[in-house]
Design goal:
Layout: E1 3-10, E2 16-22, H1 28-66, E3 79-84, E4 87-92, E5 96-98, E6 101-104, E7 110-114, E8 117-123, H2 125-146, H3 152-165, E9 172-180, E10 184-190, E11 197-198, E12 201-204, H4 212-218, H5 225-242, E13 250-256, E14 259-265, H6 283-289
Antiparallel strand pairs: 1-2, 3-4, 3-12, 4-13, 5-6, 7-8, 8-9, 9-10, 10-11, 13-14
Protein name: Proteasome subunit beta
Active site: 77 (nucleophile)
Subcellular location: Cytoplasm; Nucleus
Length: 297
């Protein structure tokens, strides 16, 4: 059988020795070296996979934190109700958000309850929609039984009843506004928890924190319809300029003895405040307008 020279070494006496191994055999040192090399490779691969997995989990956690698409749709918003000498004007922006993601940029947050009563919704979109649906159904039955339209006070108290009885499960703050032949134009605020307050004007939503001082200065009794309409649009545009959860367009609803009038104000027709940029159709327009002209010699 052919022998193969596999290595040299020194014995304890210092005399050189040669080791001859059979074909296919390996020395203990070679086996130990191969085993340690394989373990090192496996360990390196394990560390690499651990780093990749940790990085993926980090990205997923950041994505879930910022863009949690399973989160409840929220109308973090600006809603306004104002009385004037002939009725009420309701107004709202149109941005519906899911965390940091804008789920709907042109939603309608002013919902009809009856022909003469409307509600502005803020909070969880699903909660406010189901409250509106229930109240609309109850008011329809109420109108059939009485043979006449329900009053604004009845509609507001039904909203208050549902909000208060389910306050631990609902996230809803609404403004009920309307006109009836008994008390004219009325505004009722029903914030979180189910309290009900009749007020000459009311604001709600995340953008309302920027408007309290403005309304203290700008609101006045016995306004005309035009003054009330301009006040609502101006207030909504101010809140949209400051509040990241408010934006889009402005919708208004006027309710008086003559009926209901809806109006729409596009984002390009609203006044600009502070350092707001003018709306453009393309980012290229914005970039081209900011390019400086060449210097003249």
């Amino acid at each position: 059988m052919e022998n193969k020279l596999s290595g040299f070494g020194l014995d304890p006496t210092g005399v050189e020795r040669r080791t001859f191994l059979e074909e296919g055999e390996s020395s203990p040192k070679q086996s130990l070296y191969s085993l340690s090399l394989s373990a090192s490779l496996y360990l390196a691969c394990f560390h690499l996979l651990s780093l990749k997995l940790g990085f993926i989990l980090l990205l997923l956690s950041i994505y879930k934190m910022d863009l949690d698409l399973s989160a409840p749709h929220s109308t973090g918003t600006t809603i306004i109700g104002v009385t004037y000498n002939g009725g009420v004007v309701l107004g709202a922006d149109s941005r519906t958000s899911t965390g940091m993601y804008v789920a709907n940029r042109a939603s309608d947050k002013i919902t009809e309850l009856t022909d003469n009563v409307y509600v502005c919704r803020s909070g969880s979109a699903a909660d406010t929609q189901v409250i509106s649906d229930y109240v609309r159904y109850f008011l329809h039955q109420h109108t059939i039984q009485l043979g006449q339209p329900a009053t604004v006070k009845v509609a507001a108290n039904l909203v208050r009843l549902l909000s208060y009885q389910n306050k631990n499960m609902l996230q809803a703050g609404v403004i009920v506004g309307g006109w009836d032949k008994y008390e004219g134009g009325q505004i009722y605020s029903v914030p979180l928890g189910g309290t009900i307050l009749r007020q000459p004007f009311s604001i709600g939503g995340s953008g309302s924190s920027y408007l309290y001082g403005f309304f203290d200065q700008a609101w006045k009794e016995d306004m005309t319809h035009e003054e009330a309409e301009q006040l609502v649009v101006k207030a909504a545009s101010l809140a949209m300029a400051r509040d990241g959860a408010s934006g889009g367009v402005v919708r208004t609803v006027t309710i008086n003895a003559e009926g209901v009038t809806r109006k729409f104000y596009g984002g390009d027709t609203l006044p600009l405040w502070h350092d707001e940029l003018e709306p453009t159709n393309s980012l290229l327009d914005l970039l081209s307008s900011s390019v400086p002209e060449p210097m003249s010699t």
